[in-house]
């Protein structure tokens, strides 16, 4: 067997483990020793133990923190020199920037930046300028940039953040694809058990969102639309799974109103959300910025129709009119939600079609195989 290569993957926070699930094991099975640089935490530690990767803890700060960032960069330079990796695939904004910078300092030749979205999109003022500069710098430092959707690539190029010629989209896009075996609807009893646990009657039409609760994710608009819907369809429920965030926070008054609403159920975020998809009838992501929208293809794989904001990233994760709908305003969001609540048979039809579309285009193995080809090409080009 040929000598194994060293591959470094990165993420800023432990919760970034969801972007790497299955990927580390696949690369290990295909000739790579896998090292993951990340802030420590239960999620990333469990992933490394499960998939045989080596965790190298670095305490990244998600926000701009000059002294902490300098310390991290110096630590990363030392780590990269010691590991002598063949390929670095840096993902998430802060880890991506600092790892790409450290790699440049030591002259590393094969540094990929996986662009999962543009955080600057919804910022304002000086902070927007600073974050946009950081995004552009990260893209310029990388050998190759992998935007996770075609529309994100086009948007980043149009904004002057990325050179088209140094970027590539893997397949049809997505951050890590979907595990088709995992995200397969089980027997009807699984969803019923989850509804019973949550106190949701069988005849309720359940609209859901999974992820961070903040303004960026369109939670206020989703809630406002739901309040109108429940007046006409009193059996409707809104299931929100995640956590309220301090950054870009929803107002305290609105948070209290959401918690007090008798038809709204708020659940803490959990890594395994399959049971949620089993129990719901519609998933909504009215996000203001998104690299791709993984929950959209996860829900589609589980035969759940989806509605998403018609923005770069989301538009690649919805087969409009087939797996769900793309919308461009709060009024259109409300109209499409009513379309499904009033016509459950259409919701079921779009769910089934969405499943077929995801299986054909977004299997995790498709993404990993394309990553493997990219790594091989970079190493082959070096030998030419």
Q: What can you see in these coordinates?
A:
The chain is of the alpha/beta class. The protein has 2 domains: 5-177 and 364-383, Glycogen Phosphorylase B (Rossmann fold, 3-Layer(aba) Sandwich), CATH 3.40.50.2000; 188-361, 3-Layer(aba) Sandwich (Rossmann fold), CATH 3.40.50.2000. The chain is 45% helix and 17% strand. It is built from 14 helices and 12 strands. The strands form 2 sheets. The protein has a 6-stranded parallel β-sheet with strand order 3-2-1-4-5-6, sandwiched between helices. Helix 3 packs across helix 4 (93-105), helix 4 (93-105) packs across helix 5 and helix 8 (219-232) crosses helix 12. The mean pLDDT is 94.
Spatial order of the strands forming the largest sheet: 3-2-1-4-5-6
Structural class: alpha/beta
**What best-fitting shape do the alpha-carbon axes yield?**
globular
CATH superfamily label of the largest domain: Glycogen Phosphorylase B
Low-confidence stretches: none
Computed CA radius of gyration, to the nearest angstrom: 21 Å
Report the mean per-residue pLDDT as an integer: 94
| Number of separate domains | 2
């Amino acid at each position: 067997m040929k000598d194994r290569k060293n591959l470094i993957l990165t993420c800023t926070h432990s919760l970034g483990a969801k972007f790497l699930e299955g990927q580390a094991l696949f690369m290990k099975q295909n000739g790579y020793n896998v090292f993951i640089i990340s802030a420590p935490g239960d999620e990333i530690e469990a992933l490394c133990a499960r998939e045989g990767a080596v965790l190298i803890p670095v305490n990244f700060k998600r926000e701009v923190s000059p002294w902490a960032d300098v310390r991290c960069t110096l630590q990363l330079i030392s780590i990269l020199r010691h590991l002598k990796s063949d390929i670095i695939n840096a993902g998430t904004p802060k880890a991506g920037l600092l790892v790409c910078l450290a790699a440049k300092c030591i002259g590393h030749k094969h540094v990929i930046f996986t662009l999962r979205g543009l955080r600057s999109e919804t910022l304002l003022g000086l902070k927007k300028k600073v974050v946009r500069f950081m995004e552009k710098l990260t893209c310029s430092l990388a050998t190759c940039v992998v935007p996770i959707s075609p529309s994100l690539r086009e948007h980043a190029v149009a904004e002057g953040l990325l050179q088209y010629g140094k970027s590539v989209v893997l397949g049809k896009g997505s951050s890590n694809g979907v595990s088709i075996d995992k995200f397969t609807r089980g027997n009807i009893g699984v969803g019923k058990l989850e509804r019973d646990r949550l106190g949701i009657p069988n005849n309720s039409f359940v609209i859901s969102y999974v992820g961070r609760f903040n303004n960026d994710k369109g939670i206020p608009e989703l809630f406002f639309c739901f309040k109108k819907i429940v007046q006409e369809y009193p059996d409707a429920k809104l299931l929100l799974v995640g956590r309220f965030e301090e950054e870009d926070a929803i107002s305290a008054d609105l948070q209290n109103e959401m918690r007090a609403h008798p038809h709204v159920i708020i659940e803490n975020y959990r890594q395994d959300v399959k049971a949620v998809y089993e129990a719901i009838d519609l998933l909504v992501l009215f996000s203001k910025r998104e690299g791709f929208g993984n929950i959209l293809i996860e829900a589609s794989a589980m035969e759940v129709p989806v509605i998403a904001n018609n923005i770069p990233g989301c538009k690649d994760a919805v087969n409009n009119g087939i797996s769900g709908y793309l919308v461009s305003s709060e009024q259109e969001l409300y109209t499409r939600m009513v379309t499904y609540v009033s016509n459950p048979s259409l919701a079921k039809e779009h769910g089934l079609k969405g499943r077929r579309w995801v299986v054909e285009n977004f299997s995790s193995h498709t993404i990993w195989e394309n990553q493997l080809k990219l790594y091989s090409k970079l190493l082959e080009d070096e030998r030419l």
